[in-house]
Amino acid sequence: MRRSTLPAVPVALILLALAVSPASSLSAQEPPPGPATAPLIQPSPDAAAGITVPLGRPTLTTEQGPLFPLRRIAARLGGQLTEAEGSVTLTLGDTAVIAGPGNPVMIVGQEIVQLSQAPIEGESLADGLLVPLDLLRGSYGALQDYDFTWSPADDQLTARRRLPRTLPVSVDVVHLQGVSTLVLQFPDRFHYEIVERGDDLEVRPDRDHFEPPRPAPRVDDPLVRGVRVSPDRLWIDLAPGTSAESYTLERPFRLVFDVVRQEEREADAEEELPDIEPPRDRPGLDTIVIDPGHGGTETGAIGPSGQQEKELTLELAKTLRARLRERMPVRVILTREEDENLPHDTRTAIANQNKADLFISIHLNSSLGSTAQGAETYFLSMEASDARAAEAAASENRSAGRAEGADDSDEDPLYDLQLILWDLAQSHHLEESQRVATLIQEELNSALGLRDRGVKQAPFRVLMGAAMPAVLVELGFLSNPAEESRLRDPGYRAQLVDALVRAIGRYRSELDQQAAREMGRPSTSSESTP
Protein backbone atom coordinates (compact mmCIF):
# COMPACT_ATOMS: atom_id res chain seq x y z
CA MET A 1 0.00 0.00 0.00
CA ARG A 2 1.20 3.46 -0.75
CA ARG A 3 2.47 5.38 2.20
CA SER A 4 2.70 9.11 2.13
CA THR A 5 4.52 11.96 3.85
CA LEU A 6 7.03 11.31 6.39
CA PRO A 7 7.09 7.52 6.82
CA ALA A 8 8.67 6.45 10.10
CA VAL A 9 12.41 5.89 9.95
CA PRO A 10 13.31 2.38 11.18
CA VAL A 11 14.66 2.42 14.70
CA ALA A 12 17.70 0.36 13.69
CA LEU A 13 18.63 2.98 11.12
CA ILE A 14 18.10 5.79 13.61
CA LEU A 15 20.30 4.14 16.18
CA LEU A 16 22.92 3.44 13.54
CA ALA A 17 22.89 7.10 12.50
CA LEU A 18 23.27 8.18 16.10
CA ALA A 19 26.03 5.67 16.67
CA VAL A 20 28.19 7.00 13.87
CA SER A 21 27.68 10.63 14.91
CA PRO A 22 30.88 12.05 16.42
CA ALA A 23 28.96 13.55 19.32
CA SER A 24 26.87 10.47 19.95
CA SER A 25 26.99 8.37 23.06
CA LEU A 26 24.01 6.17 22.14
CA SER A 27 25.04 2.90 20.58
CA ALA A 28 23.44 1.01 17.74
CA GLN A 29 24.46 -2.18 19.49
CA GLU A 30 22.48 -3.69 22.32
CA PRO A 31 23.16 -1.63 25.45
CA PRO A 32 25.24 -3.25 28.12
CA PRO A 33 23.31 -4.85 30.94
CA GLY A 34 22.05 -2.20 33.34
CA PRO A 35 19.70 -2.02 36.29
CA ALA A 36 16.57 -4.09 36.04
CA THR A 37 13.59 -2.44 34.44
CA ALA A 38 11.76 -0.31 36.98
CA PRO A 39 8.17 -1.28 37.74
CA LEU A 40 5.42 0.64 36.00
CA ILE A 41 4.71 3.77 38.02
CA GLN A 42 1.13 4.98 38.11
CA PRO A 43 0.64 8.73 37.84
CA SER A 44 -0.35 10.60 40.97
CA PRO A 45 -4.13 10.98 41.42
CA ASP A 46 -3.86 14.72 40.97
CA ALA A 47 -2.05 14.33 37.64
CA ALA A 48 -4.51 11.75 36.36
CA ALA A 49 -7.46 13.98 37.31
CA GLY A 50 -6.20 16.97 35.41
CA ILE A 51 -5.15 18.95 38.50
CA THR A 52 -2.01 21.06 38.27
CA VAL A 53 0.94 19.14 39.74
CA PRO A 54 4.06 20.99 41.01
CA LEU A 55 7.24 19.30 39.79
CA GLY A 56 9.79 21.53 41.49
CA ARG A 57 12.81 23.45 40.29
CA PRO A 58 15.29 22.49 37.60
CA THR A 59 18.38 20.73 38.83
CA LEU A 60 20.58 22.76 36.51
CA THR A 61 20.18 25.73 34.18
CA THR A 62 22.50 26.14 31.18
CA GLU A 63 22.71 28.81 28.50
CA GLN A 64 20.19 26.76 26.48
CA GLY A 65 17.69 26.56 29.34
CA PRO A 66 16.71 24.49 32.39
CA LEU A 67 17.30 20.76 32.84
CA PHE A 68 14.90 18.68 34.92
CA PRO A 69 15.38 15.32 36.72
CA LEU A 70 13.59 12.70 34.64
CA ARG A 71 13.54 10.10 37.41
CA ARG A 72 11.76 12.43 39.86
CA ILE A 73 9.25 13.55 37.22
CA ALA A 74 8.45 9.96 36.22
CA ALA A 75 7.69 9.25 39.88
CA ARG A 76 4.95 11.91 39.74
CA LEU A 77 3.58 11.50 36.24
CA GLY A 78 3.95 7.74 35.81
CA GLY A 79 5.60 5.59 33.17
CA GLN A 80 8.36 3.01 33.23
CA LEU A 81 12.04 3.87 33.22
CA THR A 82 14.71 1.45 32.03
CA GLU A 83 18.23 2.71 32.49
CA ALA A 84 21.33 1.28 30.83
CA GLU A 85 24.80 2.60 30.20
CA GLY A 86 24.52 5.42 27.68
CA SER A 87 20.71 5.52 27.35
CA VAL A 88 17.44 5.78 29.23
CA THR A 89 14.13 4.37 27.96
CA LEU A 90 10.87 5.87 29.19
CA THR A 91 7.88 3.69 28.26
CA LEU A 92 4.53 5.46 28.11
CA GLY A 93 1.73 3.14 27.08
CA ASP A 94 2.93 1.30 23.97
CA THR A 95 5.57 3.89 23.02
CA ALA A 96 9.21 3.90 24.02
CA VAL A 97 11.07 7.20 24.37
CA ILE A 98 14.87 6.85 24.21
CA ALA A 99 17.37 9.52 25.23
CA GLY A 100 20.96 9.59 26.37
CA PRO A 101 23.53 11.96 27.85
CA GLY A 102 25.36 14.06 25.28
CA ASN A 103 22.82 13.52 22.46
CA PRO A 104 20.61 16.51 21.51
CA VAL A 105 17.94 14.19 20.07
CA MET A 106 15.45 11.69 21.41
CA ILE A 107 13.67 8.79 19.72
CA VAL A 108 9.89 8.67 20.17
CA GLY A 109 8.60 5.40 18.80
CA GLN A 110 10.34 5.40 15.39
CA GLU A 111 10.87 9.12 14.97
CA ILE A 112 13.87 11.30 15.76
CA VAL A 113 13.03 14.51 17.61
CA GLN A 114 15.58 17.30 17.88
CA LEU A 115 16.08 18.73 21.38
CA SER A 116 17.07 22.23 22.42
CA GLN A 117 20.06 20.78 24.26
CA ALA A 118 21.54 17.41 25.13
CA PRO A 119 20.51 15.70 28.39
CA ILE A 120 23.25 15.14 30.97
CA GLU A 121 23.78 12.77 33.87
CA GLY A 122 22.66 14.19 37.20
CA GLU A 123 25.05 14.20 40.12
CA SER A 124 22.42 12.72 42.44
CA LEU A 125 21.20 9.14 42.02
CA ALA A 126 17.70 10.38 42.81
CA ASP A 127 17.78 12.69 39.78
CA GLY A 128 18.99 10.30 37.10
CA LEU A 129 19.13 11.84 33.64
CA LEU A 130 18.61 15.63 33.48
CA VAL A 131 16.47 16.53 30.46
CA PRO A 132 15.31 19.75 28.77
CA LEU A 133 11.71 20.89 28.85
CA ASP A 134 11.08 19.98 25.21
CA LEU A 135 11.89 16.32 25.99
CA LEU A 136 9.09 16.33 28.58
CA ARG A 137 6.72 17.99 26.13
CA GLY A 138 7.69 15.54 23.37
CA SER A 139 7.10 12.53 25.63
CA TYR A 140 4.53 13.15 28.36
CA GLY A 141 3.02 16.04 26.44
CA ALA A 142 2.71 14.33 23.05
CA LEU A 143 1.85 10.86 24.33
CA GLN A 144 -0.22 11.53 27.45
CA ASP A 145 -1.66 15.01 26.95
CA TYR A 146 0.30 16.85 29.64
CA ASP A 147 0.79 20.62 29.46
CA PHE A 148 4.01 21.82 31.08
CA THR A 149 4.53 25.32 32.44
CA TRP A 150 7.86 26.60 33.64
CA SER A 151 7.96 29.96 35.35
CA PRO A 152 11.48 31.48 35.30
CA ALA A 153 10.36 34.05 37.86
CA ASP A 154 9.90 31.52 40.66
CA ASP A 155 11.91 28.73 38.98
CA GLN A 156 9.05 26.24 39.18
CA LEU A 157 7.82 23.57 36.75
CA THR A 158 4.20 22.41 36.83
CA ALA A 159 2.25 19.88 34.78
CA ARG A 160 -1.44 19.51 34.12
CA ARG A 161 -3.09 16.80 32.08
CA ARG A 162 -5.37 18.21 29.44
CA LEU A 163 -9.03 17.42 29.88
CA PRO A 164 -10.77 15.45 27.11
CA ARG A 165 -11.57 17.53 24.03
CA THR A 166 -14.29 17.45 21.41
CA LEU A 167 -12.63 17.29 18.01
CA PRO A 168 -14.45 18.21 14.80
CA VAL A 169 -13.59 15.93 11.90
CA SER A 170 -13.76 16.50 8.15
CA VAL A 171 -13.84 13.65 5.62
CA ASP A 172 -12.44 13.59 2.09
CA VAL A 173 -11.99 10.66 -0.32
CA VAL A 174 -10.16 10.63 -3.66
CA HIS A 175 -9.65 7.69 -6.04
CA LEU A 176 -6.46 7.75 -8.13
CA GLN A 177 -4.70 5.03 -10.14
CA GLY A 178 -6.64 2.22 -8.45
CA VAL A 179 -6.03 3.53 -4.92
CA SER A 180 -8.66 5.26 -2.78
CA THR A 181 -7.19 7.71 -0.29
CA LEU A 182 -9.41 8.60 2.68
CA VAL A 183 -8.32 11.68 4.63
CA LEU A 184 -9.71 12.41 8.10
CA GLN A 185 -8.70 15.90 9.24
CA PHE A 186 -8.71 17.10 12.86
CA PRO A 187 -7.72 20.41 14.48
CA ASP A 188 -5.17 18.74 16.78
CA ARG A 189 -3.24 15.51 17.15
CA PHE A 190 -4.90 13.01 19.49
CA HIS A 191 -4.35 9.45 20.66
CA TYR A 192 -6.39 6.71 19.07
CA GLU A 193 -6.66 3.02 18.28
CA ILE A 194 -7.56 1.48 14.91
CA VAL A 195 -9.57 -1.75 15.12
CA GLU A 196 -10.39 -4.02 12.16
CA ARG A 197 -13.87 -5.57 12.14
CA GLY A 198 -14.46 -7.58 8.96
CA ASP A 199 -14.72 -5.06 6.12
CA ASP A 200 -14.95 -2.20 8.61
CA LEU A 201 -12.28 -0.16 10.35
CA GLU A 202 -12.94 1.68 13.58
CA VAL A 203 -10.99 4.68 14.85
CA ARG A 204 -11.41 4.93 18.62
CA PRO A 205 -10.07 7.99 20.48
CA ASP A 206 -8.41 7.22 23.79
CA ARG A 207 -9.61 10.21 25.83
CA ASP A 208 -11.14 12.71 23.43
CA HIS A 209 -14.44 12.73 21.56
CA PHE A 210 -15.43 13.37 17.96
CA GLU A 211 -17.83 16.04 16.79
CA PRO A 212 -19.72 14.41 13.91
CA PRO A 213 -19.78 16.57 10.75
CA ARG A 214 -23.05 18.15 9.71
CA PRO A 215 -24.34 17.09 7.28
CA ALA A 216 -23.08 13.53 7.50
CA PRO A 217 -20.29 12.83 4.97
CA ARG A 218 -21.37 11.42 1.60
CA VAL A 219 -18.91 9.01 0.01
CA ASP A 220 -19.07 7.99 -3.64
CA ASP A 221 -16.04 5.75 -4.12
CA PRO A 222 -15.46 2.24 -5.51
CA LEU A 223 -13.38 1.07 -2.54
CA VAL A 224 -14.69 3.13 0.42
CA ARG A 225 -18.42 2.54 0.82
CA GLY A 226 -19.07 4.95 3.65
CA VAL A 227 -17.84 6.81 6.74
CA ARG A 228 -19.89 7.28 9.92
CA VAL A 229 -18.91 9.37 12.91
CA SER A 230 -20.17 9.24 16.48
CA PRO A 231 -18.72 10.93 19.59
CA ASP A 232 -16.78 7.86 20.69
CA ARG A 233 -15.72 6.26 17.38
CA LEU A 234 -15.50 6.57 13.61
CA TRP A 235 -16.48 3.71 11.28
CA ILE A 236 -14.96 3.20 7.83
CA ASP A 237 -16.92 0.78 5.63
CA LEU A 238 -14.60 -0.77 3.01
CA ALA A 239 -15.63 -2.69 -0.08
CA PRO A 240 -15.12 -6.49 0.19
CA GLY A 241 -11.72 -7.75 -0.89
CA THR A 242 -9.86 -4.56 -0.06
CA SER A 243 -7.03 -3.80 2.35
CA ALA A 244 -5.98 -0.51 3.91
CA GLU A 245 -2.87 1.00 5.38
CA SER A 246 -2.85 4.12 7.53
CA TYR A 247 -0.39 6.93 8.21
CA THR A 248 -0.52 10.47 9.57
CA LEU A 249 0.22 13.96 8.28
CA GLU A 250 0.84 17.12 10.27
CA ARG A 251 -0.12 20.79 9.95
CA PRO A 252 -3.07 20.16 10.24
CA PHE A 253 -3.25 16.70 11.78
CA ARG A 254 -4.66 14.16 9.34
CA LEU A 255 -5.22 10.42 9.60
CA VAL A 256 -4.93 8.93 6.11
CA PHE A 257 -5.97 5.51 4.81
CA ASP A 258 -4.81 4.14 1.45
CA VAL A 259 -7.25 1.48 0.25
CA VAL A 260 -6.63 -0.97 -2.61
CA ARG A 261 -8.23 -4.15 -3.92
CA GLN A 262 -6.22 -7.10 -2.69
CA GLU A 263 -6.35 -8.98 -5.99
CA GLU A 264 -5.12 -5.92 -7.91
CA ARG A 265 -2.27 -5.49 -5.50
CA GLU A 266 -1.27 -9.14 -5.96
CA ALA A 267 -1.65 -8.92 -9.74
CA ASP A 268 0.39 -5.72 -9.86
CA ALA A 269 3.15 -7.46 -7.94
CA GLU A 270 3.35 -10.08 -10.69
CA GLU A 271 2.99 -7.70 -13.66
CA GLU A 272 5.87 -7.53 -16.11
CA LEU A 273 7.98 -9.97 -14.11
CA PRO A 274 8.11 -13.16 -16.21
CA ASP A 275 11.92 -13.28 -16.22
CA ILE A 276 12.59 -12.02 -12.69
CA GLU A 277 13.30 -14.30 -9.80
CA PRO A 278 11.69 -13.76 -6.38
CA PRO A 279 13.19 -10.99 -4.22
CA ARG A 280 16.79 -11.73 -3.42
CA ASP A 281 19.00 -11.00 -0.44
CA ARG A 282 21.71 -9.51 -2.65
CA PRO A 283 22.20 -6.34 -4.66
CA GLY A 284 19.96 -6.20 -7.71
CA LEU A 285 17.82 -3.97 -9.88
CA ASP A 286 14.42 -5.57 -10.32
CA THR A 287 11.95 -2.70 -9.82
CA ILE A 288 12.36 0.89 -11.01
CA VAL A 289 9.95 3.72 -10.23
CA ILE A 290 10.02 6.69 -12.62
CA ASP A 291 8.49 9.96 -11.50
CA PRO A 292 7.34 12.41 -14.21
CA GLY A 293 7.83 15.75 -12.47
CA HIS A 294 4.90 18.09 -11.79
CA GLY A 295 1.37 17.50 -13.15
CA GLY A 296 -2.14 18.89 -12.80
CA THR A 297 -2.19 22.48 -11.60
CA GLU A 298 1.58 22.31 -11.08
CA THR A 299 2.79 22.96 -14.62
CA GLY A 300 6.48 23.32 -13.77
CA ALA A 301 8.67 25.36 -16.12
CA ILE A 302 7.07 26.95 -19.20
CA GLY A 303 9.12 27.55 -22.35
CA PRO A 304 9.08 30.70 -24.52
CA SER A 305 6.59 29.09 -26.91
CA GLY A 306 4.34 27.90 -24.09
CA GLN A 307 5.58 24.30 -23.78
CA GLN A 308 4.87 23.03 -20.25
CA GLU A 309 7.34 20.93 -18.28
CA LYS A 310 4.64 18.60 -16.93
CA GLU A 311 3.73 17.46 -20.47
CA LEU A 312 7.27 16.66 -21.54
CA THR A 313 8.23 14.87 -18.33
CA LEU A 314 5.26 12.52 -18.77
CA GLU A 315 6.22 11.82 -22.40
CA LEU A 316 9.85 11.19 -21.39
CA ALA A 317 8.81 8.90 -18.52
CA LYS A 318 6.51 6.80 -20.70
CA THR A 319 9.18 6.40 -23.36
CA LEU A 320 11.78 5.51 -20.73
CA ARG A 321 9.48 2.85 -19.29
CA ALA A 322 8.98 1.27 -22.71
CA ARG A 323 12.71 1.31 -23.52
CA LEU A 324 13.69 -0.19 -20.16
CA ARG A 325 11.18 -3.00 -20.57
CA GLU A 326 12.62 -3.71 -24.04
CA ARG A 327 16.23 -3.82 -22.86
CA MET A 328 16.10 -5.39 -19.39
CA PRO A 329 13.99 -7.85 -17.40
CA VAL A 330 12.84 -5.17 -14.97
CA ARG A 331 9.52 -4.02 -13.58
CA VAL A 332 8.93 -0.31 -14.28
CA ILE A 333 6.26 1.78 -12.56
CA LEU A 334 5.30 5.41 -13.17
CA THR A 335 4.12 7.57 -10.31
CA ARG A 336 1.53 9.15 -12.62
CA GLU A 337 0.07 8.06 -15.95
CA GLU A 338 -1.79 11.26 -16.80
CA ASP A 339 -1.95 14.99 -16.12
CA GLU A 340 -2.86 15.04 -12.45
CA ASN A 341 -1.81 16.59 -9.16
CA LEU A 342 0.41 14.29 -7.15
CA PRO A 343 2.04 15.41 -3.86
CA HIS A 344 5.78 14.93 -3.53
CA ASP A 345 5.34 12.63 -0.55
CA THR A 346 3.03 10.35 -2.54
CA ARG A 347 5.62 9.93 -5.29
CA THR A 348 8.25 8.44 -3.01
CA ALA A 349 5.54 6.55 -1.13
CA ILE A 350 4.68 4.73 -4.37
CA ALA A 351 8.34 3.75 -4.72
CA ASN A 352 8.49 2.53 -1.12
CA GLN A 353 5.24 0.58 -1.38
CA ASN A 354 6.47 -1.19 -4.51
CA LYS A 355 9.83 -1.94 -2.86
CA ALA A 356 11.64 -0.23 -5.70
CA ASP A 357 15.38 -0.69 -6.16
CA LEU A 358 15.74 2.71 -7.87
CA PHE A 359 13.74 5.96 -7.95
CA ILE A 360 14.26 8.51 -10.76
CA SER A 361 12.42 11.83 -10.84
CA ILE A 362 12.46 13.50 -14.29
CA HIS A 363 12.37 17.30 -14.60
CA LEU A 364 13.24 20.14 -16.96
CA ASN A 365 15.13 23.19 -15.81
CA SER A 366 14.45 26.91 -15.95
CA SER A 367 16.61 29.98 -15.56
CA LEU A 368 16.05 33.72 -15.45
CA GLY A 369 18.29 34.03 -18.48
CA SER A 370 17.57 32.43 -21.85
CA THR A 371 21.04 31.02 -22.54
CA ALA A 372 21.45 28.41 -19.78
CA GLN A 373 21.66 24.90 -21.20
CA GLY A 374 22.68 21.36 -20.30
CA ALA A 375 21.64 18.61 -17.92
CA GLU A 376 22.03 18.33 -14.17
CA THR A 377 21.64 15.29 -11.95
CA TYR A 378 20.99 15.52 -8.20
CA PHE A 379 20.88 13.34 -5.13
CA LEU A 380 19.49 14.30 -1.72
CA SER A 381 21.52 16.24 0.82
CA MET A 382 20.85 18.61 3.69
CA GLU A 383 23.32 21.07 2.17
CA ALA A 384 23.21 22.17 -1.46
CA SER A 385 26.46 21.73 -3.35
CA ASP A 386 26.31 25.29 -4.68
CA ALA A 387 24.05 28.35 -4.88
CA ARG A 388 22.52 27.21 -8.19
CA ALA A 389 21.60 23.81 -6.69
CA ALA A 390 20.02 25.50 -3.66
CA GLU A 391 18.01 27.78 -5.94
CA ALA A 392 16.82 24.85 -8.08
CA ALA A 393 15.65 22.86 -5.04
CA ALA A 394 13.91 25.87 -3.50
CA SER A 395 12.07 26.55 -6.77
CA GLU A 396 10.88 22.95 -7.12
CA ASN A 397 9.82 22.76 -3.48
CA ARG A 398 7.90 26.06 -3.70
CA SER A 399 6.05 25.06 -6.86
CA ALA A 400 4.96 21.79 -5.25
CA GLY A 401 3.78 23.66 -2.18
CA ARG A 402 1.54 25.87 -4.31
CA ALA A 403 0.05 22.85 -6.05
CA GLU A 404 -0.59 21.14 -2.71
CA GLY A 405 -2.24 24.22 -1.22
CA ALA A 406 0.58 25.44 1.01
CA ASP A 407 1.13 29.11 1.71
CA ASP A 408 4.55 30.21 0.51
CA SER A 409 4.62 32.92 3.14
CA ASP A 410 4.02 30.45 5.93
CA GLU A 411 7.35 28.99 6.99
CA ASP A 412 7.24 25.38 8.10
CA PRO A 413 9.35 24.95 11.25
CA LEU A 414 9.17 21.17 10.85
CA TYR A 415 10.66 21.19 7.36
CA ASP A 416 14.28 21.18 8.52
CA LEU A 417 13.58 18.37 10.99
CA GLN A 418 11.80 16.33 8.33
CA LEU A 419 14.74 16.80 6.01
CA ILE A 420 17.12 15.71 8.79
CA LEU A 421 15.10 12.52 9.24
CA TRP A 422 15.03 11.69 5.56
CA ASP A 423 18.62 12.69 5.09
CA LEU A 424 19.41 10.05 7.72
CA ALA A 425 17.24 7.54 5.85
CA GLN A 426 18.85 8.36 2.48
CA SER A 427 22.34 8.22 4.02
CA HIS A 428 21.99 4.44 3.87
CA HIS A 429 21.80 4.77 0.06
CA LEU A 430 24.02 7.83 -0.34
CA GLU A 431 26.86 6.10 -2.15
CA GLU A 432 24.53 4.28 -4.53
CA SER A 433 22.49 7.44 -5.25
CA GLN A 434 25.69 9.32 -6.06
CA ARG A 435 26.85 6.48 -8.31
CA VAL A 436 23.58 6.43 -10.28
CA ALA A 437 23.69 10.22 -10.64
CA THR A 438 27.27 10.03 -11.94
CA LEU A 439 26.42 7.36 -14.53
CA ILE A 440 23.41 9.34 -15.77
CA GLN A 441 25.42 12.55 -16.06
CA GLU A 442 28.22 10.79 -17.93
CA GLU A 443 25.87 9.23 -20.47
CA LEU A 444 23.97 12.46 -21.09
CA ASN A 445 27.19 14.41 -21.59
CA SER A 446 28.88 11.93 -23.91
CA ALA A 447 25.86 10.97 -26.02
CA LEU A 448 24.43 14.42 -26.66
CA GLY A 449 27.39 16.71 -26.27
CA LEU A 450 25.53 18.53 -23.53
CA ARG A 451 27.32 20.97 -21.29
CA ASP A 452 28.53 19.10 -18.21
CA ARG A 453 26.80 20.88 -15.34
CA GLY A 454 27.89 18.10 -13.02
CA VAL A 455 26.41 15.89 -10.32
CA LYS A 456 25.02 17.97 -7.49
CA GLN A 457 23.45 17.65 -4.07
CA ALA A 458 20.39 19.59 -2.93
CA PRO A 459 17.40 19.28 -0.55
CA PHE A 460 14.78 18.32 -3.16
CA ARG A 461 11.61 17.43 -1.32
CA VAL A 462 10.59 14.88 -3.95
CA LEU A 463 13.61 12.77 -2.96
CA MET A 464 12.74 12.89 0.74
CA GLY A 465 11.30 9.61 1.91
CA ALA A 466 12.78 7.33 -0.75
CA ALA A 467 14.04 4.17 0.94
CA MET A 468 16.26 3.25 -2.01
CA PRO A 469 18.85 4.94 -4.26
CA ALA A 470 17.10 8.05 -5.60
CA VAL A 471 18.07 10.77 -8.06
CA LEU A 472 16.49 13.77 -9.75
CA VAL A 473 17.58 14.57 -13.31
CA GLU A 474 17.03 17.89 -15.07
CA LEU A 475 17.18 17.00 -18.79
CA GLY A 476 17.56 20.51 -20.16
CA PHE A 477 16.55 24.15 -19.80
CA LEU A 478 13.03 24.73 -21.06
CA SER A 479 13.63 28.48 -20.65
CA ASN A 480 16.23 28.33 -23.44
CA PRO A 481 14.40 28.68 -26.82
CA ALA A 482 16.90 26.41 -28.59
CA GLU A 483 16.65 23.68 -25.95
CA GLU A 484 12.86 24.02 -25.83
CA SER A 485 12.79 23.39 -29.57
CA ARG A 486 14.99 20.29 -29.20
CA LEU A 487 12.95 18.97 -26.26
CA ARG A 488 9.76 19.19 -28.31
CA ASP A 489 11.37 16.92 -30.93
CA PRO A 490 10.51 13.21 -30.31
CA GLY A 491 13.83 12.18 -31.87
CA TYR A 492 15.83 14.30 -29.45
CA ARG A 493 13.78 13.03 -26.49
CA ALA A 494 14.53 9.48 -27.66
CA GLN A 495 18.25 10.28 -27.46
CA LEU A 496 17.81 11.52 -23.89
CA VAL A 497 15.92 8.35 -22.99
CA ASP A 498 18.58 6.12 -24.57
CA ALA A 499 21.24 7.87 -22.47
CA LEU A 500 19.20 7.18 -19.33
CA VAL A 501 18.72 3.52 -20.33
CA ARG A 502 22.47 3.09 -20.88
CA ALA A 503 23.21 4.60 -17.46
CA ILE A 504 20.66 2.36 -15.75
CA GLY A 505 22.01 -0.64 -17.65
CA ARG A 506 25.55 0.12 -16.46
CA TYR A 507 24.30 0.43 -12.89
CA ARG A 508 22.40 -2.86 -13.12
CA SER A 509 25.50 -4.61 -14.48
CA GLU A 510 27.57 -3.25 -11.59
CA LEU A 511 25.03 -4.60 -9.09
CA ASP A 512 25.02 -8.02 -10.77
CA GLN A 513 28.82 -8.12 -10.72
CA GLN A 514 28.82 -7.17 -7.05
CA ALA A 515 26.30 -9.92 -6.28
CA ALA A 516 28.39 -12.44 -8.22
CA ARG A 517 31.52 -11.49 -6.27
CA GLU A 518 29.64 -11.87 -2.99
CA MET A 519 28.48 -15.34 -4.06
CA GLY A 520 31.93 -16.29 -5.33
CA ARG A 521 30.94 -16.99 -8.94
CA PRO A 522 31.25 -15.24 -12.31
CA SER A 523 28.61 -12.67 -13.22
CA THR A 524 25.77 -14.00 -15.39
CA SER A 525 24.36 -10.60 -16.31
CA SER A 526 23.21 -10.87 -19.90
CA GLU A 527 21.72 -7.52 -20.82
CA SER A 528 23.57 -5.67 -23.51
CA THR A 529 24.37 -2.02 -23.31
CA PRO A 530 21.83 -0.14 -25.45
Q: First CA to last CA: what distance?
A: 34 Å
The tally of domains stands at 3
CATH C-level class of the largest domain:
Alpha Beta
Mean pLDDT: 77
Give the name of the CATH architecture of the largest domain: 3-Layer(aba) Sandwich
- Tell the overall outline: globular
Walk across the major sheet and give the strand order: 24-23-25-28-26-27
Strand fraction equals: 25-35%
Percent of residues in helices: 25-40%
Query: Would you tell me which CATH topology of the largest domain applies?
Result: Aminopeptidase
- Based on secondary structure, the structural category is alpha+beta
**CATH-defined superfamily of the largest domain:** Zn-dependent exopeptidases
Cα-atom radius of gyration:
26 Å
Count every beta strand, where a strand is a DSSP E run of 2 or more residues.
28
Largest sheet: 6 strands, mixed
Instruction: Count every helix, treating DSSP H or I runs of 4 or more residues as helices.
Output: 12
Low-pLDDT runs: 1-37, 268-282, 401-425, 524-530
